[in-house]
Design a protein that fits this description.
Blueprint (H helix, E strand, L loop, with lengths): L2 E12 L2 E12 L3 E6 L5 H9 L6 E6 L5 E4 L11 H6 L4 H4 L3 H10 L14 H13 L5 E5 L7 H14 L6 E5 L3 H7 L2 E6 L2 E6 L2 H14 L5 H17 L11 H8 L8 H12 L4 E11 L10 E12 L4 E5 L6 H9 L6 E6 L5 E4 L14 H6 L5 E3 L6 E3 L1 H7 L16 H14 L4 E5 L7 H12 L4 E5 L3 H7 L2 E6 L2 E4 L4 H17 L20 H34 L5 H33 L1
Parallel strand pairs: 3-7, 3-8, 5-6, 6-7, 12-18, 12-19, 14-17, 17-18
Antiparallel strand pairs: 1-2, 1-4, 8-9, 10-11, 10-13, 15-16, 19-20
Helix pairs in contact: 4-5, 4-6, 8-9, 9-10, 19-20
Length: 614
């Protein structure tokens, strides 16, 4: 395989610490590399060094002549005044980019809900992030560096991105380097893993599952001080081998060695014991949603249009003690509404919600609200104000930990205990938030996108705590690995109804693809003939209305281009030799075709406009 770029004896230091020292590595054609490591150890910095965005203090990065390098970093560099179309395809003519299958696939995969002619400055942060990713992916690159590309993507978007990068090059062409905390994506896409730690970059063969195996082997041979970390990763490996059969087919995953390492490792959870404890803490009744529907007022309703939008429709869900359920659905499907029904923040429009008398619900939210009152306090003071102990596990395996020991398990050092909460990193705040919630000892725990700002090690540590948590657990997350790891059941919100998924996330993705195919297969409204009578055209709402508005905008763009082509054709006719009747006839036929296309588009424009205004 041809060499693309390499780093030789890289040295980089910041005022307070050395980040890299004597790091040498290379990237060849066909490489698909995932970078993992603790937050702050230098994953993004390494990527910037290799991509030429940052100069090392020592050593050098060499790039083969003619290599095209593209990079998605975490900074938003889009011009807020430009349109989405200009940001993604620039000044390329529509008929040019629309004829490129790769460009169409990127736009459909990332920007289906983003207004094509909208201003970048009017978009949400997540939409801007996806526009930036789309603008990168439509280009032709030999090496792609992606820093947290799965942020702001849902489960479907992450699955699409995995398919795209796997099919972007032939197996022995191009190179991909990605930093992400999404372990499913790492395992699906990567053929090698680099772990950044302690000023070095350590290479491992294979994706995330193979990396975990090799790391367990390395830790087993290391000093006894690594015992705690080794046990945690061994538990992770046990789940990878037992709980996810698809991963065991990886050719580079040495199954015999894995089985030997985990033969005495118990399952990650004891469901019988956890369920017994959950029933003792909760009783038999948790939360029952009985024939529940929720409707919201529709903003900017056209005259005569529907005034209410149904989010959840006649939904029934009896949540059991000890149930561990992952909830899937596209943005806007009603996941947050469903959680708020459980907590009581939202009341059903019809039906009723019944809660057990002993239910105590806690929510790990995205807003870090639990830390608001502790902003100026040191971490040690926050911990001291809580319970003096916390028990994990049960029976003979129960272990009583102090809050300080819990903090240590979640990656806090003794020095960080004196740090004010306001000065903690995003990941540290997230871990402290989880600790405060666990110390309240709720018996129903709701996790709403809990993986933000956490690295793979910290996710494994949190999952370890949740494995021994004896209560009802509801998880909403775009992190497929987390959902499969900590829950025993997955459900999806589809068209306002709750659908059980016996085959998990794979089944959900199949159902979503089937939905999309059904919509695609619907017959288009007739254009050549119309029904007699004065009946007004049917009004559009929701997704149909947005699709019609997009079609109107597309027709406007095409009409503008056709009018320019007609004007140019008239000029050609005027300049052409007037005695060349054959040539004039050809130009006249071309002009007639353009004018006919304009007439067809104008007819369609009127039809769609009537549907919007009716």
């Amino acid at each position: 395989m041809a060499h693309l770029l390499g780093a030789e004896r890289l040295h980089l230091e910041f005022p307070t610490r050395v980040v890299f020292d004597e790091v040498t590595l290379g990237i060849d054609e066909g490489d698909r590399i995932g970078i993992v490591g603790r937050n702050g150890d230098g994953k993004s910095t390494l990527m910037k060094l290799l991509a030429g965005r940052l100069e090392p203090d020592g050593g050098r990065v060499t790039v083969r002549r003619g290599i095209r390098i593209g990079m998605l970093d975490q900074a938003d560099a889009l011009d807020p005044a430009t349109t989405v179309a200009d940001a993604v395809v620039g000044g390329i003519e529509e008929h040019v980019w629309a004829g490129d299958a790769k460009v169409r696939d990127v736009i459909a995969g990332l920007l289906a809900d983003v207004p094509w002619q909208g201003r970048v400055g009017d978009l949400s942060g997540g939409q801007r992030r996806r526009v930036g990713l789309a603008a990168l992916l439509v280009g032709d690159w030999d090496v792609l560096f992606l820093d947290e590309p799965t942020n702001h993507l849902d489960v479907e978007g992450i699955a699409w991105l995995a398919r795209h990068v796997k099919g972007r090059w032939a197996a022995s062409d191009g190179a991909l380097v990605v930093v992400t905390h999404d372990r499913w994506f790492l395992d699906e896409v990567c053929t090698a893993t680099w772990e950044v730690h302690d000023r070095v970059v350590e290479p491992f063969e294979g994706g995330y599952a193979a990396y975990v195996l090799q790391r367990v082997e390395r830790d087993r041979m290391a000093a006894a001080s690594e015992a705690k970390r080794q046990n945690l990763m061994r538990k992770e490996l046990a789940w990878l081998r037992r709980g996810a059969p698809a991963r065991t087919s990886k050719p580079k995953f040495r199954i015999e060695a894995a089985n030997q390492l985990i033969e005495n490792e118990p399952p990650v959870r004891n469901p019988v014991e956890l369920n017994r404890l959950a029933v003792s803490r909760l009783g038999k009744d948790v939360v029952d949603l009985l024939d529940v529907s929720v409707e919201y007022p529709m903003p900017d309703v056209a005259p005569g249009g529907p005034a209410m939008r149904t989010v959840l429709h006649e939904l029934e869900w009896r949540i059991a003690p000890g149930e561990r359920t992952g909830i899937l659905g596209v943005n806007g499907a009603g996941k947050s509404t469903l959680l708020k029904l459980v907590t009581g923040e939202v009341q059903p429009t019809t039906g009723r919600v019944k809660r057990g008398k002993t239910v105590k619900i806690a929510v790990l939210s995205q807003e870090l609200a639990e830390l608001a009152e502790w902003t100026d306090e040191r971490v040690s003071a926050v911990v001291a104000a809580q319970r003096t102990s916390y028990t994990i596990g049960s029976g003979s395996k129960a272990v009583e930990l102090t809050p300080g020991q819990l903090l240590e398990r979640l990656g806090f050092t003794n020095q960080q205990l004196a740090t004010p909460v306001r000065d903690l990193s995003g990941g540290q705040k997230r871990r402290l938030q989880l600790l405060l919630i666990l110390l309240q000892e709720p018996n129903v725990l709701i996790l709403d996108e809990p993986t933000n700002d956490l690295d793979t090690d910290m996710l494994a540590a949190i999952e370890d705590l949740l494995d021994a948590w004896p209560g009802t657990l509801l998880v909403v997350s775009h992190d497929r690995y987390l959902v499969e790891r900590v829950t025993d059941r997955q459900v999806a919100i589809l068209d306002g109804h709750l659908r059980d998924l016996p085959r998990g996330v794979d089944q959900y993705l199949e159902l979503r693809r089937q939905q999309a195919a059904d919509v695609e297969a619907r017959p288009a409204p007739p254009t050549a003939t119309r029904s007699p009578g004065p009946a007004a055209p049917a009004q559009l709402a929701g997704a149909d209305r947005r699709a019609a508005e997009k079609e109107i905008a597309s027709i406007d763009r095409r009409l503008e281009k056709l009018q320019a082509q007609i004007a140019a054709q008239h000029e050609r006719l005027a300049r052409h030799d007037q005695s060349d009747y054959v040539g004039l006839g050809v130009l006249g036929d071309e002009l007639a075709e353009l004018e006919g296309a304009v007439a067809d588009l104008e007819t369609r424009w009127l039809e769609v406009s009537e549907q919007l205004e009716g």
